[in-house]
Amino acid sequence: MTFGARVPRWLRVTLPAVLIIVWLVGAAIGGPYFGRVDEVSSNDRTAYLPATAEATEVQERLSGFTEGDAIPAIVLFVAPEGSTDGLGDADLAAVGERLEAVAALEVVDGDVSPPLPSDDGAAAQAFVPLSGSADLGAATAELRDTLQAGLPDGIDLYITGPAGFSSDLGSAFAGIDGILLGVALAAVLIILVIVYRSLLLPLAVLATSMFALCLALLTVWHLARSGVLLLSGQTQGILFILVIGAATDYALLYVARFREELVHTPDRWTATLRALRGSVEPILASGGTVIAGLLCLLLSELRSNSALGPVAAVGIVFAMLAALTLLPALLLALGRAAFWPRRPAYDPTAARAGAQVGGVWGRLSRGIRARPRTIWVTTAAALALGCLGITQLQASGVPQSELVLGASEARTGQERLAEHFPAGSGSPVYVVTPQDEMQRAADVLLAEDGIARVAITAETPSGTAPVTAEGIQAFGPPGAPAPEPVVSDGAVLLQGTPDDAADSAAAEQTVRDLRTAYADTVPAALVGGESATDLDTNEASIRDRALIVPIVLVVILLILMLLLRAVLAPVLLILTTVLSFGTAMGVAALVFNDLLGFPGADPAVPLFGFVFLVALGIDYNIFLMTRVREESLTHGTREGVLRGLRLTGGIITSAGLVLAATFTALAVIPVLFLAQLAFIVAFGVLLDTFAVRSLLVPALGYDIGRAIWWPSRLARERP
């Protein structure tokens, strides 16, 4: 009598029913949070900088010099195309009236500047402080509508600056809850229908993924609300894709085991127990490896990186739980009907899976048996050739204006602004310096070639505002009374307008030069602002990459050693995964530079690509090698390799296609970082699926033989 027969019938019915109800209730509670993520998320880059970064220190001290936490919007007015007179007095008067109307809006937090005409008379700009607590998308739309009402015909209006770029970025992320999720689920559904040639089973697998995502989102939302985690649109998108892809992969592994057991036992309860016994170890090992790799991101100095680790880890936990509880309960309730119209029939005479040598995987296993060394050497050489392109990868950072793909009003406005004003207008370099060092600090700023104008935050009749510093010895023209600077904690705030766009490499170099100059003259001076934030973010990201990549490799290597009870096999698996990653990055560099014409990549792109590809690529190694080890205990290593390949080939291929499709869905969000990550991970997963796990690893394992399990007993003894 089997264990399944001894279990009371009421428990067989009650247990899966309770599990399904628990997950239904959890999904019902978590589902409504899809539309509320923006309540606890932020795309403010300074919030993610290390607390010790100089730009962070300046940002924290700005409140002592300015009123509120407003985000500046730069409004640009440009004369009609072909106009020879530029903006006349009547035009400027009309613009001034519209700016006065803007000052009365609730979303405006502070004084609105009057129109400031350009030297060529063809344009004017104004600075409008928008409330930091407002929805910037709605705020900029209201600002635009108010300005356009009554504006003379032909005058072009642009809203740019920090508020404009944040608004564009928020609009780009607006499709995460709808478009991204819809595209990802549709892609997975199509693949599952093709794989299973069934409708009911794909729906059960998709329900598993969606319920896991609902519970993960519910957990992450409350952790973010309590301040434990930081959420951004970027992190939210990755969470959605990762949970759907991982939960579906784990479900594929379980479904394959369950179907196999239904052929060898007439009892669905027994088949469930056996399928769980065969699936628990690889699923837990796979998910645990991914979680360990993701949690290494906690070592990052950038909170945008360190926040992703625990957020994604929470998602993986719920993906594993759903695959090991909800899906088995659903399939236990459905039984063989889940596979309709291709129901697996009970056949006690059927050979165990892996013995068959027909089909694609049977032919491939015969090819590996015949020429293992030729196959693995050729595959490794081809992958190594692809790695050569990695030298062309430009991952030192991209301008903020290039973050959004497609049309961007803020980017166009910045380009038009540079035609008539210093390109850095509205995004100054901030220098916080001790009051008694004010003049020396101003001298350094005035002497810097990359700075067009210098101002000091001073008291004016309408409040605090930057007042231009024209002289070297005193602020203001000769003979004029010096403005009274605002003093906060014994320091004053200087503002330098960069000649170059604030998000350009030239503006970052200006910040470097200023910091070097102040280190020698006014060591207590701090340099911050948009350009400094970009610089500190990129440099912290590069440091993170150098630190985290080797740690991830060591952590995953140790996990593989424990799982496979060997040293040589895990080392070889890590090397093949790194080779696959190098190829993916090399090909990506060529695609980004030569095919898509991208302006470069964020330094975090290779880091995230590495963590996802290595952690997820090891998933397939675990699926393959745990089954190979299981078969090797009975049939010997070389035969175990071939049987393991035949057993897992279809599962890994399906899982790889699902994961590649879900990450490809990230490309529907018009954000450069996500588009690049989508290509790298999707292409890398397909490489793992069709080259590394189907050719390189099996051929290498077959060629080495039982020595691959060194130093375990399996390397010395025959089965």
UniProtKB/TrEMBL annotation:
Residues covered by the SSD domain: 574-702
This protein's record includes keyword Glycosyltransferase: no
Bilayer topology annotation: Multi-pass membrane protein
Transmembrane segments: 12-34, 172-196, 203-224, 236-256, 283-300, 312-334, 374-393, 546-564, 571-592, 604-624, 645-669, 675-696
Record's keyword terms, sorted: Cell membrane, Membrane, Transmembrane, Transmembrane helix
InterPro entries named among the record's database cross-references: MMPL_dom, Mycobact_MmpL, SSD
SUPFAM superfamilies: Multidrug efflux transporter AcrB transmembrane domain
Lineage: superkingdom: Bacteria
Cellular localization per UniProt: Cell membrane
Keyword Transmembrane: yes
Family to which the UniProt record says this protein belongs: Belongs to the resistance-nodulation-cell division (RND) (TC 2.A.6) family. MmpL subfamily.
Protein name per Swiss-Prot or TrEMBL: MMPL family transporter
Protein species of origin: Promicromonospora aerolata
